[in-house]
Design a protein that fits this description.
The chain has 242 residues and is an alpha+beta fold. It is 48% helix and 14% strand. GO terms for molecular function: ubiquitin protein ligase activity; zinc ion binding. Its EC number is 2.3.2.27. Keywords: DNA damage, DNA recombination, DNA repair, Metal-binding, Nucleus, Transferase, Ubl conjugation pathway, Zinc, Zinc-finger. Pfam families: SMC_Nse1, zf-RING-like.
């Protein structure tokens, strides 16, 4: 478990950078940490990536009173780790109102719903753009919709992979509760860790889904069990994971 460190200017600089960007990869987070150390602790040893969880734990202990948190997310579609600044005090859609018009927030909600309700949580770009016709109130042009999608991708809300729009790491970190409340039937939880599986491994023969990392850990424990080896699901997951 990460340790709680004394709160310093390094922590303040790291928090400021992550909250400004919203979503940063683990590599970006390390660069931010090194920069902060270089500015405020020039006489100390250069930190390693292993320092980041401790820094984040200390920051979260400080900002939890404000219903804020930096969440760690392993984003399975690209096998990359991210740190996401989350404000947990109200609805994530309500927070968008300070940056976007009511119609633009409506468009965001429509894209969110469409991806949540799709079988693999991914939709084609043309589907996204056609959602502009469902916006109530002032219309949003398709040109503006494309601009918004590009902006939301930079912020980590959505990610375009293989020509399809997917949930991004910020949705995984910040919208988990919202999606499970509003689209309960479409959301699934990993049978092993009980957390939401936005993009996991699905069995061909049953509705269960698993995080890839959870299943890798689980399979390693079962590899020496003869009974487990005879399980069709076990053999399928061995092929997928290894």
């Amino acid at each position: 478990m990460p340790s709680i460190m004394a709160y310093t200017d390094v922590h303040r600089a790291f928090l400021q950078a992550v909250s400004h960007h919203g979503t940063v990869s683990a590599k970006q987070a390390y660069k931010i940490l090194c920069s902060a150390y270089g500015k405020y602790h020039t006489d100390e040893t250069v930190p390693t990536e292993d320092h980041i969880p401790d820094v984040v734990a200390s920051i979260n202990a400080k900002i939890s009173r404000y219903c804020q948190k930096i969440n760690f997310v392993h984003y399975e579609p690209v096998e990359t780790d991210f740190y996401v600044f989350c404000n947990l005090s109200d609805s994530p859609l309500d927070r968008l109102q300070t940056h976007y018009t009511e119609s633009e927030v409506s468009f965001f909600g429509l894209v969110l719903k469409e991806i949540a309700c799709s079988e693999e949580h991914k939709i084609r770009p043309i589907v996204c753009l056609n959602l502009t016709g469902e916006i109530t109130g002032k219309s949003v042009s398709k040109v503006r919709a494309e601009e918004l999608l590009e902006e939301w991708e930079k912020l980590g809300y959505f990610v375009q992979l293989d020509g399809m729009w997917n949930f991004g790491p910020r949705i995984v970190a910040e919208f988990d509760r919202f999606l499970n409340v509003h689209y309960e039937d479409e959301m699934h939880k990993c049978l092993l860790c009980k957390e939401s599986t936005f993009y996991g491994i699905k069995c061909k023969n049953c509705p269960e889904t698993f995080h890839k990392e959870c299943m890798k850990t689980y399979l390693r424990r079962l590899q020496t069990a003869p009974a487990a080896r005879s399980c069709g699901l076990f053999q399928y997951l061995i092929e997928v994971c290894f």
